[in-house]
Write a structure and sequence with these properties.
There is one protein chain. A six-stranded parallel beta sheet has the order 3-2-1-4-5-6, with helices on both faces. The protein starts with 8 loop residues before the first strand and ends with a helix. It contains eight helices and six strands; from the N terminus they run E-H-H-H-H-E-H-E-H-E-H-E-E-H. It folds into two domains: about 10-20 and about 75-195, Rossmann fold (3-Layer(aba) Sandwich); about 20-70, no CATH class. The mean pLDDT is about 95. By secondary structure, it is of the alpha/beta class.
């Protein structure tokens, strides 16, 4: 493994941090005739959002993550502007750790999507199986002090336990989380100001 430079490496999740997975997934599900149940935005799991069993939900997520649509997700909020600004103006590189899929075509589409949007800012992309735990991958950065930006509280806590500076991107599905050891942000502007101040 290449040497990690914590001063200029930022670790990021993709979906819910760099990319707006939820909006595209909702549109895809609607095309299949599945509408999200009202007042379920606070649910992280897809099953309760659509009245599906865990097995059905996992199947739909896998189908979506391995579909052509995964190569054309929109950037989340202001990610495009501030990720590129951190890269161009401040020399930061981004290592993306995503529990998307290990299907070779899905991996290529994810890399394509990220490079189309963020160009040279994304220096490395690690694709794990759908929904996989990120501890093993994050362990390579243990004690580095790198920033680690996630939207899933469990993954943010894993990073914190490994000596990373965990930041949680605000979403309705993680609004219940209130661990004071993990910083919460609304957008990339707040991340930019934190990192560059």
């Amino acid at each position: 493994m290449s040497k990690i430079h914590p001063r200029n490496t930022i670790l990021v999740d993709a979906d819910g941090v760099l990319l707006d997975w939820e909006t595209e997934f909702s549109a895809w599900m609607a095309n299949l005739g599945f509408l999200q149940i009202d007042n379920t935005d606070n649910q992280y799991l897809i099953g309760p959002r659509y009245g599906l069993s865990d097995e059905q939900a996992k199947r739909f997520i896998t189908l979506f993550n391995e579909s052509a649509r995964i190569g054309f997700l929109s950037p989340l909020r202001d990610a495009l502007y501030y990720v590129n600004k951190l890269n161009v103006d401040h020399g930061y590189q981004f290592h993306c750790i995503t529990s998307l899929s290990t299907d070779p075509c899905a991996v290529k589409l994810r890399e394509f999507n990220l490079r189309q949007l963020f160009g040279q800012a994304i220096n490395k992309v690690v694709c794990l199986p759908t929904g996989a735990d990120k501890r093993q991958t994050l362990t390579a950065y243990s004690g580095s002090g790198c920033y680690w930006i996630e939207d899933k509280p469990e993954n943010a806590e894993v990073g914190k336990s490994l000596g990373l500076r965990s930041i949680l991107m605000n979403h309705p599905h993680n609004a219940h989380y209130n661990n004071v050891g993990v910083l919460r942000v609304k957008n990339w502007r707040e991340i930019y100001e934190l990192i560059t101040s």
